[in-house]
Amino acid sequence: MAPPNSDRPLDASAIVVAAGGSTRMARGGEASDRKPWLDLAGRPLLAWSLIALEAARHVAEIVAVVHPEDVERTRRLAADLGLTKLGPVLPGGATRTASVRLGVAAARTSAPLVAIHDGARPLVESARIDAALEAAATDGSALLARPLADTPKRAADDPPRAHETLDRSGLWAAQTPQCFDAPRLRALLAEHPDAEATDDAALWERFIGPVRLIDGGALNFKVTTPDDLALARALLERRAISGSQQ
């Protein structure tokens, strides 16, 4: 593998996971389509993640894991966008972890690094994707994350009530992509076939060790609710007005 300070790209495979049912978005009134296909500044929400990964210099291949009904739709989207890095497009599994396993299995085995990205994070920046991959090349694993700014409370009851105030120092909110040494990740998934996690780095932490944190910025949030979608639309409109690029 080329060292992180080399001029050579790191030749990573990026797995985009976009196979969920979008139930929280539907409950909020945005039920016209599955979340990856909701309009976001004139393009499907999923398009923005694909564009950012396409522009990342260390990403050589993109694998898309989508809803079974969206496989051909995703291929057409990539063609319309003129993407050159999209490789396999496959239907997802019953859980997020199952979808990740399918995506990793479909990626090129020659790629030294794997980056797993949530398709519902459309504002990820290409430069930060590359930074996370460079850190993973050195440390074996890395993820984009953000230091927690708000004071966390531990809640219980229904309606929820705060029972404990937690110290936020040292606490980070995980983002994606989460990047790993590909052979070690494949071995980890094979050794623990039944392990489930909503966060890929959690498996690495549990069975291998610490994961390097790279600041992903405030804009790399997950679009989960209609309010998130409205914020992403406003930010992309501002980006278009200012003429800024990925």
What report would you give on this structure?
35% of the residues lie in helices and 25% in strands. It has 246 residues and is an alpha/beta fold. The strands form three sheets. It has a seven-stranded mixed β-sheet, sandwiched between helices. A two-stranded antiparallel sheet has the order 2-3. A two-stranded antiparallel ribbon has the order 8-9. A hairpin with a 2-residue loop joins β2 and β3 (43-44).
Strand content: 15-25%
Straight-line distance between termini: 26 Å
Which radius of gyration do the C-alpha atoms yield? 18 Å
**Helical residues, percent:** 25-40%
- Category by helix and strand content: alpha/beta
- Give the total of beta strands: 11
Could you give the order of strands across the largest sheet?
5-4-1-6-10-7-11
- Taken in chain order, the helices and strands follow as EHEEHEHEHEHEEEEHHEH
Arithmetic mean of pLDDT = 92
Quick recap:
The protein has 246 residues and is of the alpha/beta class. The protein has helices at residues 23-27, 45-55, 71-81, 96-106, 126-139, 182-191, 200-207, 226-242; strands at residues 12-18, 39-40, 43-44, 59-66, 86-91, 113-118, 141-147, 153-156, 161-165, 172-181, 212-215. Helix content is 35%, strand content 25%.
Keywords:
246 residues, alpha/beta, 7-stranded mixed beta sheet, globular
How is the secondary structure organized here?
Blueprint: E1 12-18, H1 23-27, E2 39-40, E3 43-44, H2 45-55, E4 59-66, H3 71-81, E5 86-91, H4 96-106, E6 113-118, H5 126-139, E7 141-147, E8 153-156, E9 161-165, E10 172-181, H6 182-191, H7 200-207, E11 212-215, H8 226-242
Parallel strand pairs: 1-4, 1-6, 4-5, 7-11
Antiparallel strand pairs: 2-3, 6-10, 7-10, 8-9
